[in-house]
Amino acid sequence: MGESATTSYSSSPSGYGIGPPWLFRGRALYQLHLVKAEIARAFIPKELKLVEAFGYTLGGLFLAHYDDSPAGVFDELVVIAGIVWNPPTSCAWASRVLVNSHEACRHGRKEIGLPSHVAIFSKRDAKASDQPLYKQRTSFIHSKPKEHSEIQVLEMEDYSQTSICNISLPFAGDRWMGPKIRISLPSFSGQTTHNPQLLKYSCQIEC
């Protein structure tokens, strides 16, 4: 399932220094996936109990382009490893966060306890008859559309680059395809080298 349009988390003037809540405006797609529990557990702290059924938990990805945020204009890809119990409800756990903003990366690591990394987001608009932009295999969110946007994400580490994924997004007019949604997404984070404590935060998402 995919969603797209305008995404906002919370309200605040620009700049991280003013303090939470922070507001991010742009467009986003939230794609849900079933993840094998044994794979998800490798990314989730042992003291947290995984929400699972028949050997699977619910993970996914959150892809966003922000036109206005405390860090300015930037792109973000969040990989959700799975859902963990937080009685009486549950929380998401992000196994990787990729952004093309050094400021957003630093804030995510130190303040939110996210596994953030700096990345390059390469994009182009294409038609079904066009040759793929990248030699690697490209994954389509839906069946191959007539008009779509191709996005490649490369993680940066010092002077090296690692290809993380290629994504093809279908268009609905001038925006990404998908129904509009409004959700509250409570999440756990932390236990990283930059922020060793276990943290909890919540995103109010409209997309």
Automatic annotation (TrEMBL):
Gene3D superfamilies: Acetoacetate decarboxylase-like. InterPro entries: ADC_dom_sf, NDX1-like. One of its GO terms (biological process) is xanthophyll biosynthetic process. This is Protein NEOXANTHIN-DEFICIENT 1. It comes from Musa acuminata subsp. malaccensis (Wild banana).
